[in-house]
Amino acid sequence: MPEIISRPIVTVTNVIWSYDFTTEEVVVLLAKKADEPFKGYWSLPETFLRSTEDADSAALRLISDKIGVQLDSFHTEQLATFSSVVRTKSDRQLALAYMSFLPKMPELTPGVGAVNVAWVPVKALQNNFYLVHPEFSIKLPNTTPNDFYQNLTVKSNQSQLAFDHELIIQTAITRVRNKLDYAPSILRILGNHFTLKNARKIYANFLGISESAIDNSNFRKTHDHLFFETGAVTTVGKGRPAKLYQLK
């Protein structure tokens, strides 16, 4: 008897990074699901992959559909594919995960399929990363994907975000950290131009250290192959205007 092949559902899941200039924190976009599966759980924005589009286009469409922002393709990059058979409890779903770097943090309104939506700070503490929100504080998994999914097979162990989105965010953090010294795309969340102070804050956040631990002069010298001085200065705030830099 021929084998019956069941085709999994393919989704595009987006880790959308931005920067809160008021609190000087790196944030990620989460939505609280209105429907099953995982009704009432917070999750990353996601969409079904349409038959008429590729995954890159779907990642950009997702941002436009969810928060009304049009981004150029260089503001997004593919992260990884998540295909564990235990990542969903009903119909099998594969997630093509992306990271996107939003230079402005727009006001949010829950869209179709969500009852709430929020920019959630990502904080580091003692080599662990946390998502901190008035409704929750979630420690992201500091483990291997195999161990994470093995833990999900235990009935009493349900992830705090929908699906395996905790693992996806942790994977995104690891990717950002690994690229800081050769391709710091994460700095795009600061806009086209940025100060060394804000760049250092982002580096410190992902390295799990204080901003003061990164010397300003050494930081500029050791990273001059990544960004350059534009010749302009900031006009916002009090004190001496700060020089502006741009990614090469």
TrEMBL record:
Pfam families: WHD_NrtR. SUPFAM superfamilies: Nudix, Winged helix' DNA-binding domain. InterPro entries: NUDIX_hydrolase-like_dom_sf (IPR015797), WH-like_DNA-bd_sf (IPR036388), WH_DNA-bd_sf (IPR036390), WHD_NrtR (IPR054105). Residues 188-247 form the NrtR DNA-binding winged helix domain. This is ADP-ribose pyrophosphatase. The lineage of its organism: Bacteria, Bacillati, Bacillota, Bacilli, Lactobacillales.
